[in-house]
Amino acid sequence: MVDLNNCEAVLRVPVTEIPDEWFERLSDDEKDSEFVAMQSKTYFEDTWAQFKKNRLALVSLVFLFILILAAVFVPMFSPYTYDGQNLMQRNAASSWQHPFGTDKFGRDIFVRVMYGARISLSVGFAAALLNLIIGVVYGGICGYIGGRFDLILMRVVDILYSVPTLLYVILIMLIFGSNIFSVLLAICVSSWVGMARQVRAQVLSLKEQEFAQAAFVLGASRPRILFKHLIINCMGPIIVNTTLMVPDAIFTEAFLAFVGIGISIPMASWGTMANDARAIIMLYPMQMVWPVLAISLTMLSLHFIGDGLSDALDPRKR
Fold first, then answer.
1. Any idea which fold 61-317 has?
2. CA nearest neighbour of 227 among 160, 140, 119
3. Is the N or the C terminus of the chain less surrounded, counting Cβ atoms within 10 Å?
4. How far apart are CA 162 and CA 301, in angstroms?
C-alpha cells in the first residue's frame, strides 16, 4: 500500500518507476463489493412496466382486446347475421341460441352488438388516427414557424371551433348521405382542433430549448427538427390525447345514430340499436341495456387506458 505520510515523495516518482510492492491486489469479492447493476430498458419497455402497475388500465386493455377479437370473429362464425330476420322469434328472451335475446324483427342481438362494435370501434380509431395526423402536423407547423403565419392559421382554428359540431354534421349528412364516411368526416371536421392547440403549445415551449438550438446549429433542416426532435419529445401528451379521442368519437357516432342522423338501418351500430329499442323500452328493457352497456364499458375502458398511459408517460407522476 502507498504510504500516505510520504505523498510528496511519491508525487515526484514517475509512474513507470513505482514499485509493485507499493500496491495490493484486490480479491474478486472486493472488486464487486460496490458493484451496482441495473437492467437497461428501452423507452417502450419502461412505459409498459409502468403501465402494468395500473390494474384498472391493464384490465381495461384486456377487455378492449377481447372486444376487438369478438367483433371480428363472432359475426364471421355465428349462424346468424346482423340483418337476418326470424319473425317467429321476435323479442325472445336470452337463451343458449340467443345469449342476448332477439329484437322486434327476430334478429340476434348478440351478433348485432358484436357487428356494431366493428362500426363503432372502426369509427373511433379511424377518427382518432385522422385527428392525430391533422392535429400534429397543423399544430407543429404553427408552433415552429410562429409569427404572422401562426397568427393566421390559429385564427382559422378559432373560426372552426366557434361553429357548433352538430351544424357540420347536418350539412355533411345532407350532402353525402347517412353512411360511415359521412359520420367519420363529420367527427373529424372540428375535433382535431384540440390536438392542434396542444401540439402548438408544446412545440412553442420546446423549440427554444438547448437541444433544438443545437440541432439547428449543426445544420439540421426545419422538418427534421420539427418531427425528429420537437414532436418526439411531446409524444406523451399526444398519445394520451389520442386515446381519449377514441371514446369521444364512439359516443358522437352513437349519439348521431340514436337521434336518427347517423348510420342508417339496417346497418347495426350501438347507436342505431339503442334507437330501435327506445320505442319498446317499457316492454323489453334488456334490448336497450345491451348496446348502452357496450358503449359504457368501452368508453370506460378507454378512459382508464388513457389514464394509465398518462401516468406511464409522465415521469412527474411516478
1. MetI-like fold (1.10.3720)
2. 140
3. N
4. 30
